[in-house]
């Protein structure tokens, strides 16, 4: 009797919807933007230093997506606001 691997599908709603957090970035995109290695970004996500959405996976490595506004908030933290 053949066993079929059950796969989960993920629908990403609101990819460009500001209410849903805007654009979603891959680990590689975040790493390139911050000029660090992919492994560093994954380490930050696992430690809780960087908020990310975990995608369902069946392999060794979990896929993540980081909201663009989360990344933007990193750059805006600690900067004085101009009014």
TrEMBL record:
InterPro entries: DNA-bd_dom_put_sf, HTH_17, SinI_DNA-bd. It comes from Dictyobacter vulcani. This is Helix-turn-helix domain-containing protein. Residues 1-23 are annotated as: Disordered. It holds the Pfam family HTH_17. GO terms for molecular function: DNA binding. Residues 1-18 have a biased composition (Basic and acidic residues). Residues 24-76 form the Helix-turn-helix domain.
């Amino acid at each position: 009797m053949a066993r079929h691997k059950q796969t989960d599908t993920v629908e990403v709603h609101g990819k460009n919807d500001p209410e849903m957090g805007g654009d979603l970035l891959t680990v590689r995109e975040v790493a390139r933007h911050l000029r660090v290695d992919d492994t560093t970004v994954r380490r930050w996500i696992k430690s809780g230093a960087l908020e990310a959405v975990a995608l369902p996976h069946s392999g060794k490595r979990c896929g993540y997506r980081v909201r663009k506004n989360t990344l933007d908030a990193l750059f805006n933290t600690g900067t004085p606001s101009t009014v």
